[in-house]
Amino acid sequence: MVIAFMGSPEFAVPSLEAVLTAGHSVACVFTQPDRARARGRRLVPTPVKEIAEARGLRVLTPQTLKDAAALAVLREAAPDAIAVVAYGLLLPPEVLRLPKHGCINVHASLLPRYRGAAPIERAIMAGERTTGVTTMYMSEGWDTGDIILQEEVPIGQDMTAGELRRELAERGARLLERTLALIEAGRAPRIRQNEAVATRAPRVDPGEFEIDWRRPARAIHNLVRAGNPRPGAFTRIGGRLVKIFRGRPVDAPGAGAECERAREREDASACHGGACDPQAAPGPPDPPGTCRTTPEGLLVRAGDGFYLVQEVQAEGGKRMTARDYLRGHPVALGTVLGR
Predict the structure, then answer these.
(1) DSSP annotation string for 275-329
(2) 280 and 299 in contact (C-beta within 8 Å)?
(3) CA-CA distance, 27 to 69, in Å (whole number)?
């Protein structure tokens, strides 16, 4: 089939390559305009543009698909279908109606759940254990078109948004290849979405990733995972903003058979990050955000349990282990993180 491809970020690259590998003719590639992202505000092309130009494909970067020149190119290409993967621009009705087999979208969720711009981050923030990818016929609504194919993907307890995005990109590419084959054979299904169970996944704002240490340790862990690699969950240590990229929830220090066995082996690092202190005097619990250093990093009291911070980035610095950070930025026992 003749395909027009629309996509921009790294997530869309495997899908473009899958369309080419399957033997379809890619008449043109639409992607977002170059953006000033690097140091010195140098213009940087999208990953899709880089791949498309390397393959000798015709690339267009309109600011809007209502642009007359962009529409003229699409009409001239006369695509059998338009494949859309994380493009980032709204498709007007005249574009949706243009191809014979419609516009086919790859979405990183099991629709109708998590419609919107941030299905990966929102699923992780909500503590979901399963997500997936969906191919669908695009309509004028936001991710409301008829479903063609879906595939479930498990979310590991420690999986980050970056790791899940890479997995879904590969699965989505294979699903798109199967979808186009079914469309070409005239056997593609159309499954209406159940509006009663639809949920939204609006674009995330960096401010949402400020850690509230009053929340449960598992919820904090979900926020950290959802912010890795961008924009990064963050807190303040001694007034300095610090992003947190990895960690893990920890039960109450000094409790449980695991700690007892670790003490018998004299293996402090195995005992909840070296945080156990069997000699600690009983007393009222510290407020959420109170921290102490351990051999593995920084142990912080949460709303329930503790959170062991293992990888951080100081403002203007590089990502590093919490242990390395603490060597240059000692944190006094009892310091309370946050504002």
Answers:
(1) T--TTPPP-SPPPTTBEEEETTEEEEE-SSSEEEEEEEEETTS-EEEHHHHHHHS
(2) no
(3) 15
Q: Can you tell me which residue has the tokens 């970020």?
A: 9
Determine the 3-state secondary structure of 86 from DSSP.
Answer: coil
What's the CATH code, domain 206-328?
A: 3.10.25.10
Give domain limits for the chain. 2-197, 206-328
pLDDT tens, position by position, 102-118: 999 999 999 999 999 99
pTM of the predicted structure, to 2 decimals: 0.90
pLDDT for 243 equals: 98
Q: Which residue has 């498709």 as its token pair?
A: 91
Residue 285 has a pLDDT of 77
**What are the helix (H) ranges across the chain?**
13-21, 47-54, 68-77, 93-96, 119-125, 161-184, 217-226, 257-264, 322-328
Q: Which helix (H) or strand (E) holds 250?
A: strand 240-250
pLDDT at position 301 over 70:
yes
Axis crossing angle, helix 13-21 with helix 47-54, rounded to the nearest 10: 30
What homologous superfamily does CATH list for 2-197?
A: Formyl transferase, N-terminal domain (3.40.50.170)
Any bridge partners for residue 13, and if so which? Answer: none
- 3-state DSSP call for residue 26? strand
Task: Give the model confidence (pLDDT) of 174-209 as tens digits.
Answer: 999 999 999 999 999 999 999 999 999 999 999 999
Q: Where are the beta strands (DSSP E) in 31-116?
A: 35-36, 43-44, 59-60, 81-85, 103-107
Kindly tell me the sign of the dihedral angle through the C-alpha atoms of 147, 151, 152, 153: negative
Is the Cβ–Cβ distance between 246 and 228 less than 8 Å?
yes
